[in-house]
Amino acid sequence: MIRRPKSVVDLRGLPDVVFGPRDIMWWGTLGFVVIEGFTLVLCAAAYVYLTQNFSTWPPEHTPLPSLGAPTLQVALMLASLPVVWWTAKAARRYDLGSVRIGLLLATLFNAAFVGVRAWELLVSLNVKWDTNAYASAQWLILGMHATLLAVELIEVSGMMLVFYLAPVEEKHFSDVADMVFYWFFMVLGWMPLYVLCFLVPRWLR
Amino acid sequence: MSDRIATIPDAPISDPYEREVAELERTYHSDASPLWAWVTSVDHKSIGKRYIATCFVFFILAGLNAAVMRMQLARPENHIVGPDRYNQLFTVHGTAMMFLFAVPVMTAFATYLIPLMVGTKEVAYPRLNAFGYWTFLIGGVFLFVGLYTNTGPDTGWFSYVPLSGPDYSPGKRVDIWAQVVTFTEIAALVSAVEMIVTIFKMRAPGMSLNRIPLYVWSILVVSFMILFAMPSVAIASTAMLAMDRLVATHFFNRAEGGDPLLWQHLFWFFGHPEVYIMFIPGLGFISSIIETNTQRRIFGYPVMVLALFVTGFVAFGLWVHHMFATPIPQLGRSLFTAASVLIAIPTGLQIFCWIATIWAGRPRYTTSMMFALGFIVVFTIGGLTGVMIASVPFDLQVHDTYFIVAHFHYVILGGVVFPLFGACYLYFPKITGRLMSETLGRWHFWLFFVGVNVTFFPMHMLGLDGMPRRVYTYLPEMGWGNLNLLATAGAVTIVASIAVFLVNVAKSAYAGEVAGADPWGGPGLEWATTSPPPAWNFHPLPVVTGRAPLWEAGDELPVATGLATDRREVLVTTALDAVPDNRHEHPGESHWPLVMAIAVAVTFIGAVWTPWAYVIGFVISAVAFGGWGWPRGTKPEQQVTPGRIPATGAR
């Protein structure tokens, strides 16, 4: 049957730049937050599962992890939150100058996270991944979260370059707000893992 | 409706409409050569078609593996292939059927159909969609290159450690398996996000959640399941098994505190939901087929939707029933037995709703309907044996025997392949504009139905008689020869049925009867546009007033006008009630999804040999990410300069 179209709705007045859950890019970010968040949960579950095979955690003759750099990492991460929050607020009012500064600071923070994470892996853990299952589990969690930090470094530095070098469009401000949403997940998601990897071994020893 | 939306009663659409369509043609046209336009296409229909075709190629290749295995087992002490080759054949058969066919073919159909069914122009992220396809393609080719160069994985589709660990499986065979899994998981995950956002945020105005077609519900449920199931196997294969083999981590090495059972937990936490991820879209297809072919709305819509959700939820509480032969606490066994029996209830409810629909409707016994009826028979038999093996004592008796092989083939062929073939006949006219031959379709159905039962029913008896799975031959004294010969005869019948199907596809694509927009008198929006649909699917967008929009529309279809035609604009609606909320500009053709997929390939294929591949792949990915995201500039008024605050809310 050929049906005659009958117009009942006009879409012309709708906005084409929106922020937060109204924007489909925000939903995509949420999807990847769920995937990556659940991946970290499963890594933590595997970590806890492996503790059953040892009478002490870490096993005997395996040194405890150092706390200096990991605690500095936590402090840096928490310190970054007000900065990115301020950046998101600037994005919502299309304040180009402030967003540029915010993205530059976020890039520096993110680069610092990656640098400190390398130090945590290579120095603070005090074990190589092939020492025993405890060491493998520690490397798994730090390494998995490191992939989030590294990929976010590409994103935030790329976004910074766009805001300094490319013709900035209105929709890019919405992308900045979504980036900040992901940033909160990346930072707050690390906090329980810091406890699991660096404090729990001290309590179980 | 939002107060921003003006209501225009009876606005005429005549010449301006023609001008808009002409402009859409310019907007969606690519100036590149046909090949490059195809490579860089981000059209969900183009991606969907190549995805479907690729899955069927892998289905045929994996099916040929099965055919060789059946020839080998046709009589005792056969020597067509030796044990080493046989191990590769069954491993690649299982891996390809699960990871390269059963799950992705459902993704492929959803990629094509979902935007049409929800009444929008595209999926939510067209370039991500293309990236998912290329990643899947490369991973699948990698598996078969391994097989054909005698480096095929050989430790079974679930690659249990310690057999698949570095001590018992030296060489690169298992590494290929572990990385192929990674490719397919990435493709599945991006597609799941794609589908969830498309369904939640891009439905046609008026398509509130209680008006979504059941097939769309099934894809929504499955997409959520993928988000929570796939990471488990990705960690187990890429971050643990591959690392145990590549850089000597000890996740599964008992001597250093690792645990082989951890593999089984992680694998089956993914593997069991995977079964439902495969067949829940099949259930959606069955609803579409029965609804269309009975010309009656599905009986018990709320029950059907709830049943899908319950199935999806309980599916995550079943994984340990694959591990009844391992040391599991008694309470755990009881719990997982109860859950395994429980899941039969929502599926049973759906079957009764379909039967009620057929009973109350005016069924047309088209080929697609025949496959839906075949599904009910074959899938129910598989479900019944599933309830049997949910019981621990019975499961221990038949564990690793051909009874299990019979059970899961009944479930998968019944729950996935029968609905899939039915969907092929139902949607082929939408995709190609031509109907498939019903005569060849009936030959296809009956050969397939008989072939499946003759192949797999005897395997129940073989299993009860003690024949273990995954043996390359057996002694004549075992008395398994006749039933195996019968099963091989069934396999030959299946091969014949697939040949008929392929002939039908080829013949109908060129010489089939022209279908028109709505050859079956279907209820959903996919039948409101031309066959095949234009690049923009709908113009103007349809507006939905009920659960079966075309049956309710009469001779006038309510539509929404006003989306831009000089750029690829889509409508974003609210998640619950589908009220128009904003307009979003979609990207055009791009080669960056392919470049990104190549970066992923360099990473994971390279990681079979060296961990430095992760570093190299990361650098290439960074470049691809830059190319993907760098603005190409849209309209000048969209650009922002310091000191000017753009007015949001209007263009």
Tell me the strand order in the biggest sheet of chain B: 1-2
Which two chains form the greatest contact, residue counts included?
A-B, 70 and 94 residues
**Helix count from the secondary structure assignment of chain A:** 5
Q: What is the C-alpha radius of gyration of chain B, as a whole number of Å?
A: 25 Å
Radius of gyration of CA atoms of chain A, rounded to a whole number: 22 Å
pLDDT averaged over residues of chain B? 92
Mean pLDDT of chain A: 95
Fraction in beta strands of chain B: under 5%
- The oligomerization state is heterodimer
The structural class of chain A is: mainly alpha
Principal-axis shape of chain A equals: elongated
CA-based shape of chain B: globular
Query: Helix-strand pattern of chain B, N to C?
Result: HHHHHHHHHHHHHHHHEHEEEHH
Q: The biggest beta sheet of chain A, please? A: none
- Extract low-pLDDT stretches of chain B: 1-11, 647-651
The succession of helices and strands of chain A, N to C, reads: EHHHHH
Helix-strand makeup class of chain B: mainly alpha
From the N-terminal CA to the C-terminal CA of chain A, the straight-line distance is: 76 Å
Number of strands of chain B: 4
